[in-house]
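Hi R.,

Quick one: here's the Aminopeptidase N sequence you asked about.
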Amino acid sequence: MQPAATILHDLLDTKLDVRFDWAKQWLLGTATLTVKPHFYPQTQLVLDAKGFDIKSVKLVNGGKEKNLTYTYDKKKLTITLDRTYARTEPCQVRIQYVAKPNELEVGGSAAITQDKGLYFINPLGTDKTKPRQLWTQGETEGNSCWFPTIDRPNQRMTQEISLTVESGLKTLSNGLLISSRKNNDGTRTDTWKQSLAHAPYLAMLAVGDFAVISDTWRGKPVDYYVDPKFSNTARAVFGNTPQMLDYFSKKLGVDFPWEKYTQVAVHDFVSGAMENTTAVTFEQSLVQFAPRELADVGYDAESTVAHELFHHWFGDYVTTESWANLPLNESFADYSELLWAEHKYGADAAGLVQQEKLNRYLEEAQSKREPLIRYRYAKQEDMFDRHSYDKGGRVLHMLRNYVGDDAFFASLNRYLTQNKFSSSEIAKLRIAFEETTGEDLMWFFDQWFMQRGHPELKVTHSFANGQVSMRVQQLQDSTFTPIYRLPVTVTVWANNQPTDHRITVTKADQTFRLPSSQRPSLVKFDSQAQLLAEIEEERTQDELMYQYTHAKSYLQRYEAVTQLKVKSAELPVSTLLRSALNDPFWAVRQAAVQALRRYKGPEGNAVRQDLQQVAMKDKSSQVRATALNALASFSNENYSSAFLTALNDSSYKVVSAGIQALAKTPTADSQEKVAAMQESQNAEVLTSIATYYSLNGSSTEQYQWFMRRLPDVSDADLYRSYLPDFATFMLRMPPIEREKGIQRLESLARTAPSTFVRLGAYRGLSILASSMPTLKATLQDIRSKEKDEQVKAYYAMMQ
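And here's the predicted structure, written out as tokens:
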């Protein structure tokens, strides 16, 4: 079991005075902690302090200091206090220490890839591809790698952090900058103070050469810290932040409570982003874009901005008491992405978020099914999965649908108001909803938060004697998963009029009878598309076509487009799909393009002409790129002119799709045109060129290009395509020429810090081993020496 941590002391305040040894990658610190016994009298204070050199531990009382005895095992600092303290008596201890994060044994997870707390990026300035920076990442319990604390989410503290840095560097921490002092040695000391209490894992600092773009919201500072070269595009990514602050404050009925709101982009961040109170950290690749790249950014960057901001209510203002209750933080932040899409971009955009999130959870559920609130896990990082995020967000969507918008947001207001500046557990959320609605909701919270799995439904219907008979079967294994209670809306379309029926499924096999004056044109189960379920719903081609033309929501139009079967004899279907190429929402147009891939029916010429028009003229770069991919799927057809035209598109995504298409069907001059883009800094273009060369290249110049551009490729792209493409390319090089490339791949497979890179390099070596059997022994040796269990599991699957 993993219960909430027992509270012996309340951590009231933390004051830190820190400076940095960049060459050794050490933090030199003095921490002054104010604590008091939670309830029972205490003679000892136990702190989390990982891998420090402890210089001194003193009691501070009325300006006087007194040495205290302590024991330290490199993880816990156990301090013997000078006397017994009662719960009404705070005391203050001062600890002088050196933090050495690089000497810690590194752990981590898929969501947060390392847990050493403090990270120096290019500390000596030797890497010309990135700036010198340092930053911290506290979640889950990484902050005790750089300051002594009680590193548990059910603690709350105010804080003040003084950072001494070189005068040319900027600093950032939680709260407001209350002083900045120039020192005689050319350094500067900035002091940041947060007067509102938060959990220790939310403390942060960042140091670097940042450009600061300033905004405001209701008189509070709203700043964006980015690399100087991105100062002109920062507002395009972060600029909706004041609107989000306004929208979420009004929707929740609780104004954003903190002193400021700053967002900083850093290099090599170990997570996507982190909701440190008032000072959110982002992995720079998520939010820093050149002007031409902005066309392809879409909603992804903005959704991350919304997600981290919403945490300032759910996670920072009210904090999960234990990692077992993590969905109280992450489900809400996840759901904010749908709320913002709905508010800013409309119902179709919100429907797309709902669809993508549900699919992400269902993908994970193929191999893992856990309760949302779970007290059994191997390590707390295991909680950071698609259950806590994507499933949790979908559960909140169902809860909102069930109680109604007014009650949903009134309940959230009650929850936030009753639990502000404190830690919480799932029962408190349930009680807030029950007190607001007057209804016992234990059934909902039990089946969705406390039980594993989801419904797997088969839905069929028939019509006779003025009645629709709808049969709903729950097919999930009820040994481990409940038979669900599912309030849901069924819409019956008759005489071109929709009639909504609210039903509640409660049995494993249940038939509902719904009145209808005539045979319906469509019967749609879960017409609001709000259920978290796998649904197999029987409908005819005619019903699906009717669904597309009459349904208003994105999800119903998308479902019709993707489930229609395009047969050569069915002109109405292909005609409908061609009309869907003009749907008002881009994701439906994209689905229609994909449905028409390899179409060979009687409208073949018209379909291909339509796809060419979409590839050239659709206003969405995503749809244009998909149309190019669809054209490339027609064998024995020549669309090279469209592919070559795409190389001049304003969107890098479209340029990339053009290169990918030409890789399969190269023209006489395509290699020259692709080579002209070799120095592109765009990730998609770079990886597409690698694919082109892997299929069509053979020159030593291209070989040198692969080697030279390797440092410019992200870890994920190295794994997904670049390193395997490099290996495929090398198969066409003379064996003697391959040696440098093979050595590079082997070095990455053995020593790259990133698991993605090690796996990508291993994949590359595996490709080469098909024609170089001697590499099989190298692969075996790499496998035998790998220490990461997750990587070893991937190696086993690759064999």
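The chain has a mean pLDDT of 95.

Cheers,
M.
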